[in-house]
Structure formats: structure tokens, C-alpha cells
# Entry
Amino acid sequence: MQRTFTSFIPRGLGAQLALAFSLLSVVLTIALILVVERRAIDQIKDRIGHSLADLAAQTSDKLERGMFERYREIALVTSRPVLTTEEYTLDQRRQALERVQRSYNYYEWIGLTDTDGKVLVSGNRLLEGADVSKRPWFIEGMRGGHVGDVHEALLLDKLLPPQADKAPRRFVDVAFPYADENGKVRGVLGAHLSWNWARDVERSVVGSADRESDTQTLILSSTGRVLLGPRELMDTTLALDSFRNASPTQRGDFTVERWPDGKDYVVGFQKGSGYASYPGLGWVVLVRQQVDTAWQPLFDMRRHALVSGLLLALLFSLAGVALARRITRPLKQLAASAGELRDGGSVQIASGGPYAEVSALSRSLNLLVQDLGERRRQLQQLNGTLEQLVESRTVELRRALETVQGSEARIRAIVDTAQDAFIGVDLKGCISEWNPQAEQMLGWRRAEALGRRLDDLNLADPLRTSDSDALPQLLASNRQGALDRRVERVVTDRHGAEIPVEMSTSLTGEGETTMLSIFLRDITERKRIDRAKNEFVGTVSHELRTPLTSIRASLSLLADGAMGELTPDVQELIDICYNNCIRLNRLVDDMLDIQKIEAGMMSFVPVTQPVLPLAREAIRTMQGMATANDVSLVLDTGADANEAVAAIDYDRMTQVMTNLLSNAIKVAPRGSAVILHVIAQAHGARLSVADRGPGIRPELRERVFQPFVQIGQKDGGKPRTGGTGLGLAICKRIVEEHGGTISIADAPGGGTVFHVTLPREVAPSVMKTTATV
# Structure
């Protein structure tokens, strides 16, 4: 007969205590050992990983310093008189190049060209007379100092002797223009550096460290192509976390990752950043070692720790057995006294001996026996009133049930007569309510929808759940902020047609009766009207722009005297027409921008960049207007202004800043200054435009960002200057599309200051892919 697990547990208290002590000692000992071992393992792993990271950093540093030496050497050679002075012959120049080539064994070729790309002379006489005008090193060398990335040899591969390992010959190009004593460029001095130099650098670093034989070093280009490493990986492109995480701004780091061969490696990595005047090519050095080899010392330590722990647990178990026997001795005496009492005896229960807990139990049992009689009498009395109490509670429950049923009927009537479609969903994601408006909108009858999951109806992503736990998670996290507010969504009816709706959701009930209430209102007609409005505004604005452009051009010609000199009266009328034409053209442009933003059709391409150049460009653009108004423009830059960086679309933010400067110039008193502040912040930058105008009252500050709103003299400002009332509304929309904020405050000393705060990073919601109108 099969025995259960509990049949193996001893029945005696002493035996169970002994077993418990033994198991507890084993578990505690193993747990303690594992905790200590885990901390030691983490430290050793960290030490092993950082040793690989140090190797990668040392290798990268040697590579960058070596390339700097070659870069500097070739640059210095171009300034030698033997190259810059015409009195030296080609043989003398060849001898000079030979000395340079012999000074470093890894110079495979060094030569001098004219401005047409013809090789005049080389250190080893190779390629003399050849045309290298199409080679990248010549083209880039004519433009200035050039370092080319690793590539296979072309012209020289057949001219130079084969390499010992039969591998393809690879070069790194270094080229500089050289000029005569008058500063005129005469050609390019180019050198091909053998890539075997990098392998020797790798051996000098990794080979000098006391590492296992399977440690391998790889050098990758800035695009991830393997330039140096195992033969099977040469010229392949690796997309690894170690490559992506390599940074030139910090000392090397390490990671554990799986490579294309399916094996796991501990990888140290470092990205080069150049050295001194050498700009660097973005090489990434990876030093890898298989996990099994790297972690082998850890496995040995774990095995020894486990054996020691088990031996220690065995000793604790033996001590636990002896202790359990001593503890259970007074308990056995107490059990014997209780047995006599059970058989009807009136004996006093024995004392518990030396243990205070057992003595307290003995006293409690004696008191329990005395109290038992009293309890029996009270129980008989309670039985007499129990039936009366049950009947009273039954009546109350019936009344409560009738009240609940009445409330449910009223709620049902309200839901059924509601104008919006209503869907009730329980905690399991199943539909529990479905009113007639939901039937009409979505096509499923109530009987078909009740009891089914939202997933089965394919309504919309915000209403679907993938498993039974998804709805509670939605309620807990309030995903997309949709609870207790109205949001616009698109749902799909039974036939697959998409319906734009305004959705509001809320929670009703408590505990197991909690229900998600979803109200859907069809906004198809409202969307159609909005589209028609936007199309109308866009069409009218486009239709106005064409004749306005012609009128503006014609008036400009008349104003400039294209039709001859005009009388002063006619000239004044022409100027008035021209100025109002420009104002109307600006109004049309502003209306188009507002329409594009509201329709989501204005493109934004934010790029993280310094904001100081943008501020300077805005100052230059508005300088003419400021001079005409006798206002000075001041760019206030603190010590950290060059560090002010933000994710911006340069053209759109230039539009914002010129608009703010234009408004400030209009309200600034003559002879005063408009100040543009640039301030770096921890998470972005802030640009502030301050004027000395009359200011804007606090209760009017929100209104100025509304379309077609102008704060004139009656509002506490200067007389209106013919603006469109759209500029600040457009500025607010553009700044908010960048994920920033725009606000108004009182300027120190009087006037108004507009603060534009912009984030440093590009938020995913800011990236727009729609094209402009």
C-alpha cells in the first residue's frame, strides 16, 4: 500500500522536536552559507569582470596613443623643408621618406603626391607615377588632416610580399596636405599603416596579463564591424549590448552576454575617444572569456562551502535531538495528569516542573475545568433564545434583499435609458452589463455579449484583456490615465467598422462585487465637423496666400519705384497698402500654423543640441526691428550657458524665440533693453525674454496664449500694434509639442518675462512622423 508523506513523520512530540531541530539546523546552516557564498561570488565575479574591462581599457588606450603618434608624426613630416622647398630633388625626398618608413616597421607605404593625385615619390618606390586621385585618403587629405578606418589593401596588395599568416593585408590610412614656403598646397603626404600593428598591441596587453588561454580580444569599428579578432568573426557586424554600452567617457566596464555562436561570455569593453590632437575613429575594444572558464573558481568555492555546511548542519542536528528529549520530559508528565482527568478523575493536574510555560499551562487547565460547569449552564440559557434571534435576523435579511432588488431595478432602468452605450465588466474580464445603446452601436445583442470576455468581441486595444489578471492590473495601474475621466478612443463594431467614441470609465462596488463601468459616446459627427472646419480654414488660408503673394510683390515694385517716381500722397497710400498686405500675409501664415498644429500635421524633428546658437540667431534676426524701435537687444549668458542643451526642432524654436522678442520689442519703451537669458538646467535648458514694458496683470496671463487674443491699452499695456493675436498661441503649442512649458512672470525692476523651459531628452510622444501641410 502506498504511504503518504505524513505517515513518515513520527507521532511523539520528542521525536518531532528532534526532527524539527534537525531540519531547522540544516536549513539555517545552508541558508547562511548560501548568503555568505552569494556575496563572495558577486564580489569575485565583479573582480573577474573588471579585470577584463581593464584589459579592454588598456588595449584601447594603447591603440589611441599609437594612432596619435603616427598622426602626429605624419603631420610633422609635412612641415619638413625637404617637402616644402622646391630646391630638393625627388631622390632627396625619397630618401627622407625612406628614413621615416624605416623608423617604424608598420609603415607599409609612405608617399608624396601632387595636387592631381599623381604619386611623385614613395619611400619604397612603389606606386610612383600611379594615379590615386580617386582614393579616399587623397581626397580627404587635400581637405586637411585625415585618418581612414581599417580597409583591405588594393593597389599595394600585389606589389608587397605576402604576409606570413597568408591573411589579407589591411591598412589604416593617415594623410596630410603639404604646402610650399608661400603656404600654397602642393599635394598630399599619405601613409599606409599595417593593421598588424593592432594585433601586436593586443598581444602586448592581453598576453602580458596572467589570463586563461581562451581570453580573446576583438577590435570593432564604430559601426560594429570586426576589424581584429577570431578568424570566424572577421568582417562580420556584431550587434551586442557590450558594443552599444561602450562609452569613451568612462573607464571600461563589463557584461555577461550570449554571442552569435550560442555561447555565453564575460565581456569587458571600452570605446576609444582619440588622444590629444588625434580625433579617433570610434574603435571599440572587446575582451571576452567563456563563462564556464571565467567562473570556474566560483564553482570550486561553492562545492567546498556546501560540503562544510552539511557537516556543520549534522552537528547541529545531533545537538537538537538531545535538547528535544529534555524539553518533552515535563510535557509527558502533564499529559498523564490530563488523561486521568479525562477518565473522570478529580485529581489536580501536576505542576510543569522547571519550565514556566508548562506551569502556566497547568494552572490554566485547572481553571478551565472550574469554568467548564459555568459555561455549560450559560450554553443552555443561550439555546433558549437562539431560535428567536435567528427568526429576527431572517426578517431583516429579507427586507434588505427587497431593498437591493429595488435599487437594482432602478439602476437597470437608468442604464437602459441612458443615451450612451454602457458596458459593465467584472474582475475576470467578463461582460456583466450591456444596454440597448451598446447593442445599437456595436451590433451584438445583450444575450450574445453577457458572459463573454472583452477579447472575444475585438472592440479596441484599451478594452481588451489578455488573461484573467489583466483587468485587476489595469485597475491598479490606471493604464493610460483612462479611469474617472473622458478620453477619445476608436472601437470596432461587430462588422469591423471603426467608430470614434468618447470613453469614460469608473469603478463601482467593493471587493468581489467590483465592476468596471464603461460609457461610450459616438463622436463620429463631431469628428466630421472638426475635420470640415480644419479643411475649411486650411483651404481658405491657402487660397488667400496666392493672391496675397501677387499683391505684395506688385506693391513692393510700386514702392521701390518700378513704375517711376510717385507723388508723396500716392507713395504714402502704397506704403499703407504694402504694410497691411504684410500684416494680412502674416495672419494667413499664423492661421495655417494653428490649423496644422490642431490637425496634428505640423512636423517636429527634435534633436538634442546646444540652445546658445539658437539664441544668437534669434538676436541677429530681430536686430533690425529693435533698431527701428530704438530698443537694444541683450543676450545674457552665464558661466554655464554653453552647457545649456535641449531636444529641439531648430527652425520651430527659432520661430518661438523671434516671436517672443518681437512682442517684447513692441511693448518696450524707447531707449530700454530687451534681455534674452540662456540658463542651463539639470534636465534641459531655459530661455527667458524680459522687457521693461507695462507688464501683464496676473488675471490676464492665461488669456494671452489663446488664439486671436491681444492685450491692449485698455488691459494695462501699450496700444495694440496690429498683431494677429496668434503668435503666443502658436508659441505655446510648439513648446508643448517639444515636451516643454511656457509661462509668464513679472520681470525684476518692472515689465514682463516669458520663461520657456525645454527638456534635455527627446520624449517618445514628441517624435512626429506626419508631414507638414
